[in-house]
Amino acid sequence: MSVERNDRIFVGIVWGIVIIGLWEVIAFLLQNVFQDPMAATKLPYLHVIIATFIQNAGALLGAGLVTFSRAAAGFLVGGIIGIILAVIMSLSKTVERIGLPYLIISQMIPILALAPIIFNIVKDMDSARIIIAAYITFFPVAINMLSGLKAVERDQKDLLYSVAASQVEIYYKLMFPFSMPYLFTGLKIAAPLAITASILVDMLGSSSGIGVKILYALYSNSSNIFWAAVLTSALMGISGYYLVVLGEKVLLPWNKTSSKKGGDNV
Fold first, then answer.
1. In the chain, which ranges are continuous DSSP H helix?
2. What is the pLDDT of residues 186-236, one digit of tens each?
3. How far apart are alpha carbons 134 and 259 in whole angstroms?
4. Coil, strand or helix at 110
5. Surface-to-core class of residue 262, CB atoms within 10 Å of its CB (0-12 exposed, 13-18 middle, 19+ buried)
6. Where in the chain is the domain with CATH 1.10.3720.10?
7. Phi, psi (5° rounding) for residue 45?
8. pTM > 0.85: yes or no
9. How far apart, in whole angstroms, are the C-alpha atoms of residue 129 and residue 119?
């Protein structure tokens, strides 16, 4: 296992070096070979972006924390709603047949169209960010959790029924533990999406957040700040994903194949 892990780390480092090298080469070609006047805006040097990020780390991370905290709150609310919906649909096939199409339809509404509606209803940008993040989160959580609950074999449930276990006990002792890998798969999908949704809501009139930094940089033609803000957003998404991964490892230390099992149901 340690050899495989070291191999993955090595491959990751190699790919990182390749991507950084390609980025720098393409930026050089745009600016010095093709002499594109918009080269610094289209693709600035990566080392310039990193330097700008370091110079403005306080402001960028502070704005990112505002967005991240609202996304995290929405992620928590959406996760709870998704779990509840999955349990309800697993209890009744009729509810699943009726409710599932409406859940799918709800995801067809573009965030940019939904966000102004939500804001006009709640009249608060922070609440709007939380609601939109929850809206993005609940669907992948519900679908993956439902897949896990339905994947429990009938024989296992019949065994518990044979010892007079109640429905609550069956869920608590069998179905919930079995479906946890599936749940974390849904959470890993939803975490970066919730952050992205919160960033988009930032751009619709918020006074704070990393989305505001991106928008202001675009309007002021500050390409380096723009790319540094984009880098901050990427780091936020990666952080959200790996926080869920960490939670999975802490809560499911025995489940070594959880990612494979859950991933099959995406």
1. 2-28, 39-42, 46-55, 57-91, 93-106, 111-122, 125-150, 154-162, 167-170, 176-202, 210-219, 223-251, 258-263
2. 999 999 999 999 998 888 878 889 999 999 998 888 889 999 999 999 999
3. 23
4. coil
5. buried
6. 57-263
7. -60, 140
8. yes
9. 9
State the Cα–Cα distance between residues 143 and 185, nearest whole angstrom: 10
- Residue 76 class from Cβ within 10 Å (0-12 exposed, 13-18 middle, 19+ buried)? middle
Q: Which two tokens stand for residue 69?
A: 């905290």
Type of residue at 166:
S
Please name the amino acid found at residue 102. Answer: Y
Instruction: Give the single-character DSSP code of 37.
Output: T
Residue 261 has pLDDT above 90, yes or no: no
CA–CA separation, 236 vs 253, rounded Å? Answer: 25
CATH no. for 57-263: 1.10.3720.10
Q: Which two tokens stand for residue 141?
A: 């959580």
